[in-house]
Amino acid sequence: MGYSSAGEARQAREALGKALEALQKDADIPKEVLGIAQNIARSVGALFEAEYASTEVDGKTCVKSALGTLSQTLALLQDVKSEHAGIQTATESIADVISILFPLTNKPSVRPESSSSAAPPRSTPTSAPPTSSAPPSSRPVSNPPSVAPPSKPPPIRPPSSRPPSIRPASNRPVSNRPLSSRPSSARPVSRVPAPIPTSMLPPPAPIPMGDRRRIEANLGATTQSNFYVGFSGEIAHGGVFLATYETLPKDTSVTMLVTLPGGLEFECDGYVRFVRDPLDFASESEPGIGIQFEDLSDDARDLVLRFVGKRPPIFYDV
What we know:
This protein is of the alpha+beta class. It contains 5 helices and 9 strands, in the order H-H-H-H-E-E-E-E-E-E-E-E-H-E. The protein has helices at about 5-25, 30-50, 55-75, 85-105, 300-310; strands at about 180, 190-195, 215-220, 225-230, 240-245, 255-260, 265-275, 290-295, 315.
């Protein structure tokens, strides 16, 4: 028995292959675009492993790995300064692929059926099956579609490892940076902002009722707490997932201090956008709350992007 969602994994991998091809059409690829291409190639590899995974758990793990890398890539695409004709194509393709993969991460794991179909069912009681952390699925197991092994993606050069510079913090609000609109020509042109569909934007912030709650979110390389982004890829449209058992009601207005490795920190307003109930034992996700950013400053955004460049953010479906 293989991974039941191998067909979706193949569909996503083929779409990423087209995005990778669009980014590598030019012989002289900017370094930051080369880093984007490397992330996409890494996701292609993870999805290839998902296609041919022998178990549901292995396939789902590969899909989650690809989704995490793509969430990071989508956020980094919003900050690409170089003019490259393939950026818009890659951005749209990644958003489409995320819409395919995200439902698979919430799909209940399928329990394998007995391999012996000829033997009649036993009427005598048997020992209980091993305990599984994933909830049982009500759907029968389906055999993965037959697929042909894909060709290897073209090799790419490693990106520059030089980290971006950090400016002193300020309280100046940042405007939402939308996706760019680019012509199909490879000739460098000025980036023309394109409006982001309303469906990709977070809901309006609630009007604070009384004083804002003050909270602190400590983010590191291995913490359960992490930044999250949505389909727009713009980090200012995202926020912080705070792993905690002490949740707050949805729409609660907060002032959040975010601390990062190296003694870096910033403060911003936000509100509770979603809650993961600690008593939801059927969920495979860590309990906690998602704090949506409000008016993220330019310098806070730079800090978030530097962190996201090292650790993929969580994806949250708008």
